[in-house]
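Lab notebook: predicted structure, single chain.

Context: the supervisor wants predicted structures on file for every construct in the current expression panel, including those that have not yet been purified. This is the next one on the list. No modifications to the sequence; it matches the entry in the shared construct table.
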Amino acid sequence: MTVHDLVVAGGRIVDGCGNPWYRGDVAVRGDRVAAIGAPGTLRGRRIVDAADRYVAPGFIDPHTHSDLTILLHPRAETAVRQGVTTHVTGNCGMSAAPLTAAHRDDAVQNWAHYAWGLDRVAWDWRTFRQYLDAIRRGGHAINIAPLVGHGALRLAAVGFAERAVSEREQARMERLLDASMRAGAHGMSSGLVYPPGCFAGTDELLGLCRVVARHQGIYTSHVRGERETILAAVTEALELGRAAGCPVEVSHNAPKWGAPEDASANLGLIEDARRGGLDATTDNDVHTDLAPRFSRALPQPVLDLGHDALIALLSDPDARAALRREVLEDTLPGAGYAGVVRHGRFDRVVVYHAGRHPELRGRSVADIAAERGADGFDTFLDLIVEEDDDLVGLFDYIEEKNIRALLQSPIAMISSDGLVMAPPGELDDPSLYWPCSYGEYPGILERYVRDEPVLRLEEAIRKMTSFPAQRFRLFDRGALRPGLKADLVVFDLERVRDRATNLFPHTFPFENIPHADPEGIDWVLVNGEPVLEEGEHTGALPGRVLRRP
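Prediction complete. Output recorded below exactly as produced.
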């Protein structure tokens, strides 16, 4: 009888394809699943007794921002402890490459919101291929499947210029995209509510999507509006895919505060497009809030201002009046959380971190404004100035009913919109609030599968494994079948717990910063090598850069 390297014995196998679980042994040899057999039939040099635990393919997160943090935290503990074995990076128009010397500083500035410790990043690449080589050389515990960002392409060509690109600049962006696709990018993402993506017209995006189509890649989009204009924004993304001839993924597609329609309308557009022959799907995470700096909720032309220019603008009464008009007119629709500012729902904005006045933590802007006898919008801007922009808020901007609707849709996969971060004990920045980076996948299993069922376990696992694998053409993983890559997770559904999430409305003070390791995820194998053993990280770095075939 063949003796395998490792056998996960006697578990409840969830194959990743939506089929009911069954009991069996899973054998690993090298980096692949070698065999699957009845309980007790496979032999291995090492045996993992799964007992009554579930055995599933490693989770594939299709929407992350780990482009730079994987260089800072190659052990990827916050991903591995959730059972995640692959991150799709480069989302929302943001990728770490390509870079040009003329606009390198713009690119670094653009990442300030997503990567802490930028001073420790070498930024010693220019091309997308050089960037991927830098990741590979550093080693990493999880797999990385990269997208190239439209925002990165535009920054490389024209920086933060608030205008249409010239024909020459468009051609340069298309050449950079072509080179990035040849280097292994799986497609192009856009982030059309952030600078510089918001300054791009549909024609600019169409020219780039045609390059993506030539390489049989995918177009993923954080669409141009997530509130009042969400249906038009989703329609734009779908029409780009149809005109260019490439698949479309609508990113984190839950309507935000102020949207006139619920998630069924968005899903209806995508379903209609599919019936018409367009390969279109969507994804979403399950958190109702986000914690950006207050200033991130201001209109896009303000977002690329330096610190001093921002404070000067907010201190000028005339500039403030113009800014208020711009917020109300919403000419360039902002990110979803900006909707609570536009609609004056300052009861939905709670101070999470205030650098100069920590006693404000836990208070809503509406409460502070009432205490001061001031207007809510003025108070919102006053606080930015008073705190010198060192001010982070919890913006409660998504209705859970829309999250549930998206979870139940067969064309919606599960994502986190998070990133690899430092383990909880190493966090030293009190302004950080990223529960999705610590507990997204265990939280779904805990809340929406076990405690408040919205999904069958097998369907939830499909949305975490074979569905994103299929979407990004990672056909050698995402399911438990002999011959496929051995990315595995063993978990105890009864013990699974997300310890990072505080559901809104928030109660203050927090006992601690809401970043904590989840429970119930016991074993994780990446490319056949154990990275988590009974909850302990092994230090192994077997992840690979998964380049587009």
